[in-house]
Every structure is written in structure tokens, then in C-alpha cells.
Amino acid sequence: MSIEVNNESGYEVDEAEFAALGRFVLEEMHVHPLTELSILFVDTEVMTELHVQWMDEPGPTDVLSFPMDELRPGREGDVTPAGLLGDVVVCPEIAAQQATVAGHSTVEEMLLLTTHGILHLLGYDHAEPEEEKEMFGLQRTLLLTFLASRRSS
């Protein structure tokens, strides 16, 4: 897997940790090993511009996903075709605010947002209650499994 992580936010980010998360999620979702993913951390000014330009919504947001080849998850023994999955853009400043409210660390919030963004790239959504239940359940399972695997290694 080619996971590119760039930090243009001014916040300290462990880029290797986020590359490992991306690799883990894509492997768990049976995405082809030659698939490419980009994770970008930006400041609130850049995130505001992206949010207005692409979502027609004012102000910054926490995470945006920009799909490319519209890849979908595979199944055990049947991975997706290789391709360019897309970009996940995260705003650490917004993540820090949300983490305080949620009662966990900024890093945990950014890992959650990155997982959320990758699932959006894979076609998951949360517009309807049933979709939300599926996506958020999967997101929680993936993140908790990833964190447990990192602690045990």
C-alpha cells in the first residue's frame, strides 16, 4: 500500500502512526495492496477554504474526504482492484476542540477522523440512521483493533 501522509497544519503529528492506521484499515477492508491513499493535515484556514469550496458550508470542519477511483471494500479472499483511493484531509485544531469535549486525546480524535475519512472514501456514509449505525460501528471496531494492535507490538 502506498500511504502518503503530509502535515501542513503546524501541529505535531506522528506521520508514521497515521500511515500505519491507513495501512491497517485498508488491509482490514480487503483493499488491494497496491492502492494509494493520501492523508493530509491542514490548518483551520485551509480547511475553511476546502469546506466552502467543496461542501458549500461556512467555517472549518474536522475531516473531508476526496474519493478518486471510487473503490469499494473487498471481502476475505476477494480484494478490490488496485487504484487511487483518494485523499483524507484532517484539521488538528478542530480535532483538538472535539477531543476536549469527548474526553480523549487529540491524537485519538485525529485517528478516529482519519478512519472516518477512509471509510467515506470506501463508499460508507451516515446520512441515514441505518448507514450511520453501520459506519460508526465499523469505524469504532477498526480504530479499537488498531489501537490494541499497536499497544501489543
UniProtKB/TrEMBL annotation:
Pfam family, one: YbeY
Cofactor mode of binding and number, as noted: Binds 1 zinc ion.
Molecular function GO labels: metalloendopeptidase activity; RNA endonuclease activity; zinc ion binding
Function: Single strand-specific metallo-endoribonuclease involved in late-stage 70S ribosome quality control and in maturation of the 3' terminus of the 16S rRNA.
EC number: 3.1.-.-
Gene name of this polypeptide: ybeY
InterPro entries reported in the protein's UniProt record: MetalPrtase_cat_dom_sf_prd, YbeY, YbeY_CS
Major location (coarse): cytoplasm
GO BP term, example: rRNA processing
Binding sites annotated in the UniProt record for Zn(2+): 116, 120, 126
NCBIfam families per record: rRNA maturation RNase YbeY (TIGR00043)
Enzyme class: hydrolase
GO cellular component: cytoplasm
Needed co-factor(s): Zn(2+)
Organism, as annotated: Sanguibacter antarcticus
Family in the record: Belongs to the endoribonuclease YbeY family.
Name the UniProt record assigns to this protein: Endoribonuclease YbeY
